[in-house]
Amino acid sequence: MARAVILGTGSGAPARVVTNRDLEARMDTSDAWITQRTGIRERRMGGDAVKWSDFMVPACRAALDAAGVAAEDLDMIVAGTLTSDKRMPSGGCTLQTLLGARKAVGFDLAAACSGFIYGLTVADRFIRLEPRLKVLVVGGEVISQRIDWDDRTTAVLFGDGGGAAVLTGTDDPDRGILASRIHSDGDLWDLLYIPAGGSEMPPGREQDPRRDHAIHMRGNELFRVAVRSMADVCAEVLDEAGVDPSDVDIVVPHQANLRILQAVAQRFSIPEDRVFVNIDRYGNTSAGTIPLALDEAVRAGRVSRGDVVLMPVFGGGLTWGATLVRW
Ligand code: ACO
Questions:
Q1: What is the pLDDT of residues 248-264, one digit of tens each?
Q2: Is 284 a catalytic residue?
Q3: Active-site residue, 234 included
Q4: What is the arithmetic mean of pLDDT over 69-75?
Q5: Which residues make up the CATH 3.40.47.10 domain(s) of the chain?
Q6: Atom 24, ligand 1: residue with shortest CA distance
Q7: 213 has catalytic annotation
Q8: What pLDDT was estimated at residue 244?
Q9: Within a 13 Å sphere around the CA of 62, how many CA atoms are in the beta-carbon half?
Q10: Which ligand 1 atom sits nearest the alpha carbon of residue 153?
């Protein structure tokens, strides 16, 4: 049976760097606290001057170049995002027009941080049915616009950025997505949410617009659920593919907190040097973290043909999932 294979990746982020020291000047926090508790040293923040497509279009073009695929040959664009340029049209449609992907169908998956892995899973299933399809899967956010600057427990964590991957089908039994699984638990919605912007609190009904449109998070509880759910879904995809954890060459996990990544790797006795980390430079870019990290890992030569790559994620919803690929 055909498998979905990743042909090329790309990534992008706004140019402006915000360091922990910059945040010290803005709120009651410290470089030492942020570094020790999260592993973050700096992040990119476009603020109100940057829109999603400003860095996502270059990310997509880089992925198409790396894949050797022309935009007009794409059949599908799946965008994992909550912060595309407008409420309507979708980010997928916005990319379609900006890239000139005339025959593609574009749509979004609102799975918060898990958007890219949800997208890979949807692309995988479509490609298994129709191996000739060429699919662009993207994940990225302008999350700096969704920060409550009076809430130091969230403001220090997030940053802007994202990435993209181009997939198609292959008959090569030694390559491609070996397993990809996604889950959700709506009961846990209030661990991580944005109150306004939907029909419950539409425009004009906010009490405090800046805060109501910002991320609300219960960090400690989320931490525990994150470790458990990512470990569970990693076990699930490894099991499904019949791959032993010791055969994983590189883990490219959601970059929410360095301690979460370390805890998940420890569960499987995967050494730290096999876990790709760039949270120190980007913070948590929500749906952007995995495609951004994957692209950096590929371009740094950390991923070679035949390598087994494990990509676990969790996010608002709650949502979680993992994709296991033989490169
Ligand atoms: N600077 C300084 N002190 C702070 C800050 C800050 N930015 N934020 C909180 N503190 C203080 C708290 O007030 C508390 O002080 P107290 O002891 O006097 O009450 C102390 O630091 C410890 O706070 P905790 O919340 O217990 O710190 P913890 O070690 O749990 O770290 C953190 C908090 C980093 C948020 C952690 O819980 C975490 O990473 N949780 C998961 C968050 C996450 O993954 N979010 C995104 C998930 S989904 C997605 O990616 C969108």
A1: 999 999 999 999 999 99
A2: yes
A3: no
A4: 98
A5: 3-174, 177-326
A6: 220
A7: no
A8: 97
A9: 20
A10: 8
Asked whether the CA dihedral 179, 6, 312, 82 is positive or negative, the reply is negative
Buried b (16+ CB within 10 A) or exposed e, 243-268: bebeebbbbbbbbbbbebbebbbeeb
pLDDT bucket at 47, cuts 50 / 70 / 90: confident
14: Cα separation from own chain's centroid? 16
Please name the residue whose Cα sits nearest to atom 32 of ligand 1: 219
Q: Which of 113, 213, 257, 278 is catalytic?
A: 113
Q: What amino acid occupies position 99?
A: L
Element (H, E) at 164: strand 161-170
Query: Does the domain formed by 177-326 have CATH 3.40.50.740?
Result: no
Residue 115 CB partners (closer than 8 Å, separation 6+): 79, 80, 81, 82, 108, 109, 139, 286, 287, 315
Q: For residue 48, what pLDDT is reported?
A: 87
The one-character DSSP state at 188 is G
What global pTM score does this model have?
0.96
The atom of ligand 1 lying closest to the CA of 256 is 44
Q: Please give the order of strands across the beta sheet that includes 250-251.
A: 176-184, 319-326, 308-315, 250-251
Q: Where are the beta strands (DSSP E) in 13-146?
A: 17-19, 42-44, 76-80, 105-109, 135-141
User: Ligand 1 centroid vs 32 CA: distance in angstroms?
Assistant: 13
Identify the helix (H) or strand (E) that includes residue 5.
strand 3-12
CATH 3.40.50.150 fits 3-174, yes or no: no
Helix or strand (DSSP H, E) at 171: none
Give the model's pLDDT for residue 19.
Answer: 98
The answer, yes or no, to whether any atom of ligand 1 lies below 6 A from the CB of 316, is yes
Q: Are 308 and 251 in contact (CB under 8 A)?
A: no
Ligand 1 pocket residue status of 29, Cβ below 6 Å: yes
